[in-house]
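Sequence only, no structure available. Ideas?
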Amino acid sequence: MTTRIGVVVFPGSNCEHDVVRAVQLVGGADAELVFHDRRQLSGVDAVVLPGGFAHGDYLRPGALARFSPVMEAVAKFAAEGGPVVGICNGFQVLTEAGLLPGALQKNAGLRFLCTVVPVTVVSDRSVLTAHLTPGERLSLPINHFEGNYTCDDGTLDMLRSAGRIVLRYADNPNGSVDDIAGVCNDAGNVVGLMPHPERACDELLGNTDGAGLIGSLVASATSGRGALSRSS
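Reply:
I predicted one. Tokens follow.
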């Protein structure tokens, strides 16, 4: 049976088809779009919350999306150990929903950033980095205005000591505390990151540095199939 990845679509999402293409191209997985009004995630082996501007980023990014019916199913899926990855706006949604600690605020300098940045793999204890090597350097696209990760000192100490910082910027573009580009939950099955690995998976685009991250997610979803209840 082919691994199946659910890609959540909120009103304002705009990177869902990029994710679908990436998981098919890199991991040979099937993908399905899961609309925000769904209350179940039956039949999927992993979930991705893609980039975009969920609900127009009104109030603040992710603040409205966290109340979408699908987020209850995502939270249950994550609690059962299912792989969940939030990319850019999806990262913001995961923090607003309390599935990851911290918050994303406006970039230092109040500038929208659209460029490619170097990031370093810090930990391999997440579903997104399990097949990568700590210290490995990747070039990944970013595309955000509110990607400046922040948290209190106690949370930062916890993230460091528990190995929950999965990616760091090599040259911090947005002011994120401790150069953080991505974090995970304690179990390593929920990950949020601001860079877009799905946009760096095709040789035709000139960059495949994101392929290892997407491939790791698909591999983690495949190895975990059967261990989870899919009735959520």
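The domain at 4-224 is CATH 3.40.50.880 (Rossmann fold).
Hope that gets you unstuck.
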